Amino acid sequence: MRKTKAESQKTRQHLLNAALEVFHKQGVTRATLQETAQEAGVTRGALYWHFKNKEDLFKALFEQVFQDCHLSLDEPLAEIDDAWVYLRQQLIHVFSNLSEYEWHRKFFNVVNMKCEHTPHNQTITALAEKYHQFFLARISQIVHLCHKQGKLPENIDLELAIIYLESSFVGVMRLAAFQPERFDLLSTAERTIDASMETLQTSAFLLKK
């Protein structure tokens, strides 16, 4: 019997959940499609119906995370009335998902700790870098819009401001991956983001020389 679209989507999500579990347990390099199929309780043929290879699975996991976090380069910036408020919402939303959903925490744990940089893993590490750059590009767009809307000093060094903001964001995320019991993720992230954004508006070291 031919599966309905809803059934097919449910199976696909089940396979993604299984792949995340295998990546989390084994690390990306050691994980195999056979283990993913076994974790999902399906045949390898059923897995190949939805995903071509391990890289395809990893890409789909990234796409779901970005979709959940409402991160898209396609969203028209012209429709954002207050880019400063929007920037904070975007950053906080990522940490909110990490704090609330185990699925997201496991995924970022995989990306930060179990995505080994080996010759056999170059396609996947390149994919991780691609999505990191995608996120940075989105943040860069919003920071430039903040500047255009007068939310930042006119003579701010935008490139340095973006690097500073990214460093704060990525730093908290990686600390949470390596030392999850050290602090409350969401409250610490909110305070760090607020402090970083205040620095962008007030600190002289971010102004052009």
Secondary structure topology:
Layout: H1 5-26, H2 33-40, H3 44-50, H4 54-68, H5 83-100, H6 102-113, H7 122-148, H8 158-178, H9 185-202
Please characterize this protein's 3D structure.
This protein has 209 residues and is an all-alpha fold. It has helices at residues 5-26, 33-40, 44-50, 54-68, 83-100, 102-113, 122-148, 158-178, 185-202. The chain is elongated. It starts with a helix and ends in a 7-residue tail after the last helix. 21% of the residues are buried.
What does the radius of gyration come to? Answer: 19 Å
User: Per DSSP, what share of the residues sits in E-state strands of 2 or more residues?
Assistant: under 5%
The number of distinct helices, counting runs of at least 4 residues, comes to: 9
Helicity range of the residues?
A: over 70%
Tags for this model:
single chain, 209 residues, mainly alpha
Q: Briefly, what is this?
A:
The protein is 71% helix and 0% strand. The chain is an all-alpha fold and 209 residues long.
